[in-house]
Design brief:
heterotrimer, A alpha/beta (250), B mainly alpha (295), C mainly alpha (322), A: 250 residues, alpha/beta, Rossmann fold, four-stranded antiparallel beta sheet, 9 helices, 10 strands, 36% helix, B: 295 residues, mainly alpha, two-stranded antiparallel sheet, 3% strand, globular, Branched-chain amino acid ABC transporter permease (chain C)
Chain lengths: 250, 295, 322
């Protein structure tokens, strides 16, 4: 059985079909890339899975538990973590305290405050924010804020992380560092769903890639196959067949 | 018509008539809240000042209160502009709590200055037509209340035209929707804010003038009208002039019927219970835009 | 609102706190009745401000109806002492507990609203209670009720001091506790808090109920102290506004800030009253306006800025003005 299994997930906003009967399955330990032009419904799909939006139709289970109707905190406690496209730190709290929050509330067993702070320190080392642990979160740069988002998600001890454009706006060197970090995280057995426009990263990391367009899944498979598929190229560029998503501006 | 039906209808009429006054009280408050994002606790104090201006114009210079309305409005306009331009504008980009507290301080200041200047003695304005009622079949329509409703509709109409058809209205709405963008487009935002507040103060003054005809005048009277403005805004939606009119009428009806069914001491209970219900069910009000209110 | 996360004052802080408490305990023996009264009044507002800080400062929910719980505490204490012939202590406790229950009930509804809307709805709650109290017989209706007279005035001093100490302690313990982390996260970003495993409502209710408890206790003490309670006196938004101003000025989201704000502002108010009973409210209104414009970050900024005070004020104004 897949770790995460979404079947027929659909979301309508009035008459706008944001997500159109999407099936998505993620095996334990897998890295799945989720790509598609802007407005394809990727973030909405993540919102459906994590409970921030209610699906109009469809079902999703995580680790055998049906998720529909559960509130976001309960879903998080099952081991499903997500990051936001625009980082959402707790601005006046320190970096360390930010990461202690999910450690405190991930559920059973819940550590005490002191233990949670120590855990936060350990997680911060993994993402490379150790030296900045006592800074207020609002003092961080954008790349560091992304790392903080990752750290908070990690502190939930998830089995699966949904990462929404963690690499947007990073320099190529930063992208390499981020890819390395994600590989380390994956090596601990955490499955990843990586939403990205930085296709180099998606190609380099993913075991499997899923392509969304206008809310529908239009392709799925190994990275090289998917990015060469004609329907995917058409989705990114309209009718122009000579350029592929790898050369399109993100 | 049966006696019960007659009473019910009279109550409906009374409710609508007083609702007109409520609408005039609330429309300026709604304008300021909807466009400047300022909850003006001192709004009722401005209404109170309008009532006093009307009173003094009447008792010193024998100017009829209804004829004096433009003067009252102008006086409050002249007070409101510098108040916004030089005082409230200083903190307008700060948090909601800061502006709320500032207007609270202003309310304290204005109310207590009025108390010091004019004492707590209750005044009233009695004209020759104060007690007149028009008869419409079995119903009695007090003339001053009809004037109140008429002026409310007129003021709401003019304000609505101003907001939707004039350049100033466009500037106000642009500034309300995005301050930075408005500034970049060359709109003199400090001035626009001050004009908006001045217009709101003028309507508060006019409401005070109307109120002076039917209700007692004393320095502390403002608080009750601020609360009324709150409820009307919640009912009708923020920043919506037709909403303020509708909200005022609804509140007037609700309170009149509550007073009839439950007794005169239940008007606030009904009003605020309705308010809480509306907030839970449809927080944007009848005409407001549904917004995600991030706390 | 700022809160840089709790810091440890250490041994020095603990000694200072103990010394302050000892001094406070000694006051009635050393000072005349006038000063004892004045200080009791200051403590009372310190209690209100510290209590408000729990929901308004730490949680970020501006409760404008907090005086609802003053009324609940006052009337519960009054009714139990007058009609059930209870002694003050159990009546006061009952007032506090009933406030907690009312807060839990109303909070589960009101705390789903945010920002302005919560502020108005909570105020509406207070107004409804005010009118209810005016309509019920057991509360004495609009004419109010008279409580039995206390024999010794200093009893109020000590009760208020005890409640204040508890409130300040709560303000110290809360942000360092697990619930405090949840509350801070909710204040900063409720959506982010949710995806990290926090179900917001129970924690908001906790803060709201704790704040209500302190307001209820204040109400009970007030009722016994002034021996007369009627709806507009206890269900009075002025108490709430003063608590808010004092909290804001002293530093929201800190344990001692609200108390500091209360001490400074209430002392100023007493001084102004001595200068002119008539004009003291005018002065206070002007003071609030000036403080809000020039010192929105309150005492904390004034203390920290010192020499660079003018520059700090200018910087704040640049951010907030148009």
């Amino acid at each position: 059985m897949a770790l995460l299994e979404g079947r027929g997930l659909t979301k309508l906003f009035g008459r706008l079909v944001a997500v159109d009967h999407v099936d998505l399955a993620v095996e334990p330990g897998e890295i799945v890339g989720l790509i598609g032009p802007n407005g394809a419904g990727k973030t909405t799909l993540v919102n459906l899975i994590t409970g921030l939006e209610a699906p109009t139709d469809g079902a999703v289970t995580f680790d055998g538990h049906p998720l529909r109707g559960r509130q976001p905190p309960a879903i998080a406690r099952l081991g499903l973590a997500r990051t936001f496209q625009i980082a959402q730190p707790f601005r006046t709290m320190t970096v360390r305290q930010n990461v202690a929050v999910p450690a405190l509330f991930r559920g059973d067993p819940a550590p005490g405050v002191a233990a949670a702070l120590r855990e936060a320190d350990a997680v911060l080392e993994i993402v490379g924010l150790g030296p900045k642990r006592d800074l207020p979160a609002r003092a961080l740069t954008t790349p560091d804020l992304r790392r903080l988002e990752l750290a908070k998600a990690l502190a939930l001890r998830p089995r699966l992380m949904l990462l929404d454009e963690v690499m947007a706006g990073l320099t190529p060197t930063e992208v390499d560092a981020a890819m390395e970090m994600l590989r380390r995280i994956n090596a601990r057995g955490i499955a990843l769903v990586v939403i990205e426009h930085v296709l180099r990263a998606v190609m380099g990391l993913s075991h499997r890639v899923v392509v969304l367009h206008h809310g529908r899944k239009i392709a799925e498979g190994a990275p090289a196959q998917v990015t060469a598929a004609p329907e995917v190229i058409r989705a990114y560029l309209g009718a122009d067949q000579d350029a592929g998503p790898g050369s399109a501006p993100p | 018509m049966s006696a019960a039906a007659q009473i019910a209808l009279q109550n409906a009429v009374n409710g609508l008539l007083i609702g007109g006054t409520y609408a005039t009280v609330a429309v300026g408050f709604s304008l300021v809240w909807g466009t400047l994002n300022v909850v003006n606790i001192a709004h009722g104090a401005l209404v109170m000042l309008g009532a006093y201006v009307t009173y003094w114009l009447f008792s010193l210079y024998h100017i009829d209160p209804l004829l004096a309305l433009p003067l009252t409005g102008a006086a409050l306009f002249a007070l409101g502009y510098p108040l916004q331009r030089f005082v409230i504008n200083q903190v307008i980009r700060a948090s909601f709590l800061i502006t709320f507290l500032l207007t609270f301080g202003l309310d304290l200041l204005i109310t207590n200055l009025a108390l010091a200047a004019w004492t707590a003695d209750i005044r009233s304005v009695t004209t020759s037509y104060s007690g007149w009622s028009l008869a419409a079949g079995p119903l009695a329509l007090p003339v001053v209340r009809i004037a109140g409703l008429g002026i409310a509709v007129l003021a709401a109409g003019l304000l609505h035209l101003l907001m939707t058809r004039s350049r100033l209205g466009g500037a106000i709405r642009a500034t309300a929707s995005d301050l930075e963008a408005a500034r970049l487009m060359g709109i003199p935002t400090a001035h626009v804010y001050a004009l908006t507040f001045a217009i709101a103060a003028a309507t508060a003054g006019i409401a005070g003038g109307l109120i002076s005809l039917s209700f007692p005048i004393y320095p502390a009277m403002g608080a009750g009208y601020t609360l009324i403005a709150f409820v009307v805004c919640v009912l009708g939606g923020l920043g919506s002039v037709p909403g303020a009119l509708a909200g005022g009428l609804i509140l007037g009806l609700l309170q009149t019927y509550a007073a009839w069914w439950l007794g005169p001491n239940f008007d606030n209970i009904v009003a605020f219970s309705v308010l809480i219900l509306v907030l839970l069910v449809r927080p944007a009000g009848l005409f407001g835009r549904a917004r995600r209110f991030r706390g | 609102m700022r809160g840089q996360g709790p810091h440890r004052p250490g041994a020095a802080g603990a000694i200072l706190a103990a010394a302050a408490l000892a001094a406070a305990l000694a006051v009635p023996a050393l000072a005349g009745t006038y000063y004892v009264r004045v200080i009791t009044g200051i403590f009372m507002f310190g209690l209100l401000a510290s209590g408000w800080n729990l929901i308004g400062g730490y949680t970020g929910y501006p409760d404008f109806g907090a005086a609802a719980f003053i009324g609940i505490g006052a009337y519960t204490t009054g009714i139990l002492m007058l009609h059930a012939h209870l002694a003050f202590a159990p009546a006061l406790a009952a007032g506090g507990l009933l406030s907690i229950a009312a807060a839990a009930a109303m909070g589960s509804v009101l705390l789903r609203l945010r920002g302005h809307y919560f502020a108005i709805a909570s105020l509406g709650f207070m107004i409804v209670l005010q009118q209810l109290a005016a309509n019920l017989e057991i509360t004495g209706g609009g004419s109010g009720m008279n409580l039995p007279v206390a024999r010794n005035f200093t009893t109020f001093y000590y009760w208020t001091l005890a409640a204040l100490t508890l409130a300040v302690a709560a303000g110290y313990v809360l942000p360092r506790s697990r619930a405090g982390y949840a509350i801070a996260a909710i204040r900063e970003n409720q959506d982010a808090a949710q995806v990290l495993g926090i179900a917001p409502l129970p924690y908001k209710i906790l803060a709201y109920a704790a704040s209500a408890f302190f307001f209820g206790i204040a109400g009970g003490i007030y009722a016994y102290w002034f021996t007369f309670v009627d709806p507009p006196t206890v269900f009075n938004v002025d108490f709430t506004i003063q608590a808010i101003v004092m909290t804001l000025f002293g530093g929201p989201g800190t344990a001692l800030g609200p108390l500091a704000g209360a001490v400074v502002l209430k002392s100023l108010d007493v001084l102004l009253t001595n200068i002119s009973v008539f004009l003291h409210n005018v002065f206070f209104g002007a003071l609030v306006c000036l403080l809000v414009i020039f010192a929105p970050r309150g005492l904390a900024e004034i203390v920290r800025a010192r020499g660079g005070l003018i520059e700090a004020i200018r910087a704040d104004l640049r951010e907030s003005r148009i």
